[in-house]
Specification:
- There is one protein chain.
- This protein has eleven helices and 20 strands.
- About 25% of the residues lie in helices and about 40% in strands.
- Strands 8, 9, 10, 11, 12, 13, 16, 17, 19 and 20 form a ten-stranded mixed β-sheet that branches. Strands 1, 2, 3, 4, 5, 6 and 7 form a seven-stranded mixed β-sheet that branches.
- The chain has two domains: about 5-210, PmbA/TldD fold; about 215-445, no CATH class.
- α1 runs parallel beside α2.
- With about 450 residues, the protein is an alpha+beta fold.
Length: about 450
């Protein structure tokens, strides 16, 4: 029995009973039961659990609509009256609102509710929170570990008064941590997914300890300039997340605000080996969006180094006269995947030869948005490599590069495997977003200081 889903269904039925005339109700639910543990010096400093139920209610009459967001208790008997009152208040507001020329929601359920409905419960294998915490502490013994473990059940639901029902549920975990050395020296790591594998965590912890030992060596300094670099999947993932800020949305492209506009218009291209896909099937996000449209299993965004498509929300579909492909209102990827290449991951340092190994990037932004020029800082453990071996740590450096060089003219290759990077964001609620990224080998990567 699924208490989260039963709660959502009960509220949807109750809210539908107060509709009048040709009113249509759209309802989105976000629910989670999550455990958290915060570590410092490899000790548990804070633990807690969160049970959260949120509801977005939208009332539509003709081309007018009004919405409200509610934080609820999870008990239908208490939440039902609040939802009914909310619908009645929204009805009062509708008369004072103008018509919305770009309003579009899925009306397929008028003819066939089942065709628009869906259910996806993702398989998972997670330990109890106490078991995970004990495993982390055992592996971190003797090290100064700081980090956050979050795990538990997430659910998203959509329903409308036309009979459509969509449900997504998953149990996931994320462990975002650093092994601290001294001053600003640390090795940042993460481990996340739906299947907990102790061997995988142990491997990552051992790798972090080896890098931590290198941080004790005297730092190597390199002047600003262009260097051959190996980007770990986490660093590639940060660049892909930055591109997601308007890079793939139809609205940003049609209004000339996309950082990838030159790619879309054919003035620039990426390396022919670059393929980017919104891969809902392999991701960890729901396969439906807030107006009830189902998402395709995959949407090609870049193929063969050329623009191949865009994420189209219902509003953009109405505004620009095209079909929606189930994108959210933000038109940002929620399961972005970069296709792997053919470089053996275990041989990446050897292929690098002499240059810079970059594990993480942060503080990313655009220094020249029309040129898709990005800037940011290396983060934590970045190393100088000679003869295919890590020799010394490097101080924090700032880079300034265009995506057209990094994933275009200067791309040597991508690793043959990808890493699924689940979002560890917990702002307001735990995120369901993910990025699949390989490692990358790049020539003439520009460090400015």
């Amino acid at each position: 029995m699924d208490a989260m889903r039963d709660w959502f269904e009960a509220l949807l039925r109750e809210a539908t009973t107060v509709l009048v005339g040709d009113e249509v109700l759209l309802m989105n639910a976000s629910a989670e039961d999550s455990d958290f543990a915060r570590f410092s010096q490899a000790r548990v400093r804070q633990v807690g659990s969160v049970e959260q139920r949120e509801l977005e209610v939208e009332l539509v009459r003709g081309r007018r609509h009004a919405g409200a967001c509610l934080t609820l208790t999870g008990a239908p008997g208490e939440d039902g009256p609040r939802v009914r009152r909310t619908v009645e208040r929204l009805r009062e507001r509708l008369g004072a609102l103008p018509e919305d020329p770009y309003l579009l929601y899925n009306e397929q359920a008028r003819a066939d509710p089942g065709a628009a409905s869906s259910e996806r419960v993702a398989p998972a294998r997670l330990p109890a929170a106490a078991e995970a915490v004990e495993a982390i502490q055992a592996l971190a013994a003797g090290a100064d570990l700081v980090g956050l473990y979050a795990a538990g059940r997430l659910a998203r639901g959509f329903g409308n008064s036309l009979g459509q029902r969509n449900w997504y549920a998953a149990r996931t975990f994320s462990f975002d941590w650093s092994l601290y050395h001294s001053a600003d020296k640390a090795v940042k790591c993460d481990y996340a997914g739906a299947t907990w594998e102790p061997e995988q965590l142990a491997r990552r912890m051992d790798e972090a300890r080896r890098k931590l030992a290198v941080l004790g060596r005297p730092a190597h300094k390199v002047p600003p300039g262009r260097y051959r670099v190996a980007l770990a999947p986490a660093a590639v993932g940060e660049l892909l997340r930055l591109l997601s800020w308007g890079g793939f949305g139809l609205k940003a492209q049609r209004t000339k605000q996309s950082p990838l506009l030159r790619l879309v218009e054919g003035a620039e291209r990426l390396d022919p080996r670059v393929r980017l896909v919104e891969d809902t099937r392999a991701g960890t996000s729901p396969n439906f969006q807030e107006q009830g449209y189902l998402k395709p299993e995959a949407v090609a965004l870049v193929d063969g180094g050329r623009a191949a498509g865009a994420l189209v929300s219902p509003r953009s579909a109405r505004e620009f006269g095209v079909e929606t492909n189930g994108a959210s209102a933000a038109e940002a990827p929620e399961a972005l995947a970069m296709a792997p290449g053919d470089l053996p991951p275990e041989g990446l340092l050897e292929r690098l030869g002499t240059g810079v190994w970059v594990g993480n990037l942060h503080y990313l932004n655009y220094s020249d948005l029309p040129a898709c020029r990005t800037t940011g800082m290396t983060r934590f453990a970045t190393f100088w490599v000679e003869g295919g071996e890590i020799r010394a740590p490097l101080s924090v450096m700032r880079f300034d590069e265009t995506i057209y060089r990094v994933f275009g003219a200067n791309l040597v290759g991508l690793t043959a495997d990808s890493e699924t990077l689940l979002s560890s964001d917990t702002y307001q609620r735990r995120s369901t977003g993910s990025v699949q990224a390989p490692g990358a080998l790049v020539e003439d990567f520009a460090f400015t200081l």
